[in-house]
């Protein structure tokens, strides 16, 4: 067991999903090793449940108001927490962690001194489907926790040498973060902001069974503007390659995979994905690259035509 518990801050960025935030709170309170503080980086009071008295919450909570955008919200959360904590844990508002997560994250950083950042084992990911209901995610995680006959066992590294980490569940030593921040040139979806940030943090990045959970991948109906994400699917990997935070092979593989998926599925798209919009966004980004004017911010110029039906 650890004799000196590290100070852990959980940073959660959210926008317009107060009931999703509410669903996460019991899982933070159930942690076998509670965080020193929870930091919410939101755009205003409407992003959080209105009936919760944060001053009287069982775990210290700080609410930071930020301009809209995942990168800027993550940065405001970091600014608030990095100097007063030893470990920063980022959870998406729809990520359901094991109740052993924070305890085992601390243990992993103690066991692996060369590791500066880690992501975990995702039991199920609603991003790959129409989404997972919060109740179903909670059951999956509870079943996992109940099966752990020795939750105090040493965490293991499942994969090492990662280019980046998965932003819905990632943790960093603050000593490694220093003055680094998320790249605010990546607007809106901030596609690949997690990969970019993690790749720039010095030290080894790994996937570990220290952190286990379910990512609900909450969606509010059908994607209404796939062109925006489609543009970022091409423009952002290209930008990150040019700035040196991802290898060329990584950027090419990601861009080609997403473009191929959008074209192959455009005729019979999933109910929750605007494949035709993404396809148009892909080609707009490719055109900008060929014309030498590609930049992640140009996604703000993309306007999707209204969908029929």
Automatic annotation (TrEMBL):
It comes from Limimaricola variabilis. This is Glycosyltransferase involved in cell wall biosynthesis. Transmembrane segments: none annotated. Pfam families: Glyco_tranf_2_3. InterPro entries: Glycosyltransf_2, Nucleotide-diphossugar_trans.
